[in-house]
Amino acid sequence: MTGDVVNIGLPADFPPARPGCTTLGLPRDVSFTPGNHDAYAPRSMPYLAAAFAPWTASDGAASPPGFFPFLRVRGDVALIGCHPACRPGR
Asked: Is beta strand 77-81 parallel, antiparallel or unpaired with respect to 70-74?
């Protein structure tokens, strides 16, 4: 799922957006990469991470859920989830 699931990225925006991922499939089968609107508001990342953590977790213990970039390997394909508004480790 590619981002822009909310408009401004306010705390109240994320809980109603989460069901979009649940209808697509289990977190092991679906990845979420946020768009710029998902982090448009300052300090929106903790709320985004809380809502979409299962879909942004790296395989294994490479990084905690909600950390960008994340890595998932499916067969011969490596999926790297990035966030347009964040640097690694933020």
From this structure: antiparallel
pLDDT band at 20 (very low <50, low <70, confident <90, very high): confident
Task: Extract the tokens encoding 9.
Answer: 């990225």
Going from N- to C-terminal start, the domains of the chain cover 11-81
Q: Does the global pTM surpass 0.90?
A: no
CA-based nearest residue to 33, from 13, 48, 16, 47? 48
